[in-house]
Design goal:
Number of strands of chain B: 0
Distance between the termini of chain B: 60 Å
Largest sheet of chain B: none
Strand content of chain B: under 5%
Number of helices of chain A: 9
Order of helices and strands of chain A: EEEHEEHEHHHEHEHEEHH
Oligomer: heterodimer
Number of helices of chain B: 8
Radius of gyration of chain B: 20 Å
Largest interface: A-B, 31 and 31 residues
Number of strands of chain A: 10
Chain lengths: ~280, ~210
């Protein structure tokens, strides 16, 4: 059974169309890799699935529960805040820039969600957080603040924080692209471990070796549409579409596509406009 | 010749002026803190027209000179029948000004997608992330703001509030020694600012807010 079903998803920021009629399904335990050039809508797709961004229209159903109401030609109506928060809990999100709570230790970053959102007693939340950090090889860093950790360690704590809420689905938004090259491996290793444990994951990444090894399926996005989809060895070795071929050639030549960080965030002109959702 | 005796004789009045400067600045930052937080929270609220007001306010404060804002309150408001003594005009003007900048500090500290990403509600985000995190995070910019305010309060000499700069001017009117006295005034500001910086560094180390 599909754990996530997305249909007819469209989104624009002002005059810029970011997603056009995107559809995808993810099976339980499946690892879906999303690749594509800057501005192709990958990040916005993840943010819509996590309700950090509201689509203009479309359907998002997670484990049988629809997010918002957006079928038909009408505008998307988001769920009421309380419902939205509850639904969002079931999806873990790993940001490009970690976004850890800077004033909390690694342990507290991982225990605050269960404690404050799920109402787990403090001692139990801490024990569970410590176990989770231990599993990801971060036990010795539990008492440190994010500023005392390397980028790779911070990202692994961020993964632990997302896992602490026991999500059905984990979303990764270019989790290694803000890291120094030598720190990428430890994060990918953690993600491999997670994949092996049976977690359902959607990973936006440019790490092709990782994608090939761990991914069950690859989506190539360009210009807000899904251009090509298939098993990693098919898409990487014999891409059907010229755009996919061009992208992969560029990626292989440069090691990484040229893209500034946060390239897909809409331009922020004023505080009133940047929260239009 | 640089006359040190003049400076020594002026110290009592300058100290009095410095006390005024600190008073005005602290009152203004507290006022600005309250209003700034309200504006900052409003700026991220879901209410569109409130957000527009907060935005307009911040734009006005950041886009106009402080001296004009001070004159508007002290010389402008009486036209509408609102008479506020110079001292309080100064506090209000500096406070309103500071609020505009603090609203931005708070707003930037507040937008925590990470908290939303683990399913926290707006209220939980406010209580468990924003307030503790913001308190710690706003201390450095806030002390900067207090330092800026302390220096900006010299503009209140233009409406004859007897703060440090105006105290200096009063002494100069009597002694005709602008070089010595303004130098002394500058040293006083320097000491005030240094004390504030030091205090903020200590505070930052002390205040580790846990959840």
């Amino acid at each position: 059974m599909a754990i996530l079903r997305v249909e007819h998803l469209s989104k624009s920021f002002g005059a810029t169309t970011v997603l056009t009629d995107v559809a995808l399904t993810v099976e339980k335990g499946e690892i879906l890799i999303v690749i594509g050039p800057s501005g192709s809508g990958k990040t916005t797709l993840l943010r819509c699935i996590h309700c950090l961004e509201h689509p203009d229209r479309g359907t998002i159903v997670l484990d049988g529960v629809p997010f918002g109401r957006g079928d038909g030609p009408g505008a998307w109506r988001p769920d009421p805040p309380r419902e939205l928060d509850a639904k969002r809990r079931r999806v873990g999100f790993v940001f490009q820039r970690f976004n850890l709570f800077a004033n909390l230790t690694a342990l507290d970053n991982v225990s605050i969600g269960p404690r404050r959102v799920l109402g787990v007693p403090a001692a139990e939340a801490r024990t569970r957080a410590a176990a989770l950090l231990g599993r990801l090889g971060l036990a010795e860093h539990a008492a440190k603040l994010p500023s005392q950790l390397s980028g790779g360690q911070q990202q692994r704590v961020a993964i632990a924080r997302a896992l602490s809420m026991d999500p059905l689905l984990m979303l990764f938004d270019e989790p290694t692209s803000a890291l120094d090259p030598e720190l990428v491996d430890e994060v990918l290793q953690t993600m491999r471990q997670l994949a092996r444990s049976g977690m359902t994951m959607i990973v936006v990444t440019h790490e092709l070796d990782f994608a090939r090894e761990v991914g069950d399926r690859v989506l190539f996005m360009d210009g807000g549409r899904i251009v090509e989809e298939g098993r990693p060895e098919e898409v990487f070795s014999q891409p059907r579409e010229e755009r996919t071929r061009a992208f992969l050639r560029r990626l292989l030549r440069t090691g990484a596509p040229h893209h500034p960080i946060d390239h897909e965030a809409p331009p922020r002109m004023d505080p009133a406009a940047d929260r239009r959702a | 010749m640089f006359d040190f005796r003049l400076i020594v004789e002026s110290i009592p009045l300058l100290v009095k002026g410095a006390v005024y400067t600190v008073q005005v600045s602290v009152l203004a930052i507290v006022f600005g803190l309250v209003l700034g937080w309200m504006l900052g929270l409003v700026a991220v609220s879901g209410v569109r027209w409130l957000r527009a007001i907060a935005w307009g306010y911040v734009q006005f404060i950041r886009g106009t000179p402080l001296l004009v804002q001070i004159f508007l309150i002290y010389f402008g408001l009486p036209t509408l029948g609102i008479n506020i003594p110079a001292y309080w005009s100064g506090v209000i003007a500096l406070g309103l000004n500071s609020a505009g900048f603090q609203a931005e500090i708070v707003r930037a500290g507040i937008e925590s997608e990470a908290a939303r990403s683990i399913g926290m509600s707006s209220f939980q985000t406010l209580m468990f992330i924003l307030v503790p995190q913001t308190i710690r995070r706003v201390i450095p910019p806030l002390t900067n703001e207090l330092i800026t305010l302390t220096k900006s309060s010299s503009l209140l000499s233009a409406i004859a509030v007897l703060e440090l700069t105006h105290a200096g001017q009063a002494i100069i009117a009597r002694t005709f020694a602008p070089f010595e006295i303004y130098a002394a005034v500058a040293v006083f500001y320097l000491v005030l600012v240094a004390a504030l910086s030091r205090g903020s560094a200590l505070l930052e180390r002390r205040v580790f807010v846990n959840y």
